[in-house]
Amino acid sequence: MPHNISVRNASVDDVDAIHALLVPFAETHIILPRTRDDLFQHLQEFLVALYDNELVGVVAVHIYGSNLAEIRSLVVRPDMQRHGIGRLLIEGCEKWAVQLGVARIFALTYVPDFFGKLGYPRVRRESLPHKVWTVCVHCAKFTDCDEIAVEKRLSDAPIEPMKILPIIEIQQP
Ligand SMILES: CC(C)(COP(=O)(O)OP(=O)(O)OC[C@H]1O[C@@H](n2cnc3c(N)ncnc32)[C@H](O)[C@@H]1OP(=O)(O)O)[C@@H](O)C(=O)NCCC(=O)NCCS
Q1: Which of 46, 66, 108, 158 could form a disulfide with 10 if both were Cys (CB 3.0 to 4.6 A apart)?
Q2: Which residue ranges have their beta carbon within 6 Å of ligand 1?
Q3: Running DSSP on this structure, what letter comes out for residue 162?
């Protein structure tokens, strides 16, 4: 029977499974730790990958004030790696970021070759704005960071301005 892999927005019902997936990678400092409360508060940033309805992958897209987004908390369950799920999650992030009008998306990572396969060249960490580093105080490697910055330009086309809804005239009774 063919198996079904899908990527969708996370829901509150996914939080425990997301947390369980992230914990071992946070404990080995591959990703930043995230509490359940933190996951609930930022749930709208998360996409999950499902394999036959079982949660096997997760990623978050954090939007900065300008046209820049960060890929965070990317994990595929170890027994499901190298089956294209990471690629699907990143493609989901990119589609979402484009819809939001974000022009550049980056990651700080120990797997630059994975990102390289998906069209993310390495960039100088100093090219990222200072605010990117504010979450790093929670990292055990804060003073000794050896992550590699990778970045992709999502579109060279000018970003369409947000469509403004027509003003509705309200008739006074
Ligand atoms: C990195 C990770 C998310 C990749 O997910 P995945 O589902 O195994 O990746 P995919 O199967 O979609 O791989 C896409 C491509 O990248 C390649 N690739 C995957 N992992 C790679 C790695 N560590 N190094 C180099 N290439 C890699 C694959 O071979 C594939 O190439 P192909 O298209 O030529 O066949 C997964 O290995 C993981 O969860 N790692 C531990 C946590 C981690 O490091 N997260 C990143 C935080 S920024």
Answers
A1: 46
A2: 25, 30-31, 74-76, 81-87, 107, 109-111, 113-114, 117
A3: P
Domain boundaries, the chain: 5-153
Q: Quickly tell me which residue has 């369980």 as its tokens.
A: 20
| CA 115 to ligand 1: nearest atom | 16
CATH number given to 5-153: 3.40.630.30
CA 72 to ligand 1: nearest atom? 48
Q: Are strands 104-109 and 68-76 parallel, antiparallel or unpaired?
A: parallel
Predicted TM-score of the model (pTM) = 0.89
Q: Which whole-number Å values give the CA distances from 26 to 51, 66, 138, 154, 162, in the listed order? A: 23, 28, 11, 28, 37
pLDDT tens, position by position, 75-123:
999 999 999 999 999 999 999 998 888 999 999 999 999 999 999 999 9
* 3-class state of residue 115 by DSSP: helix
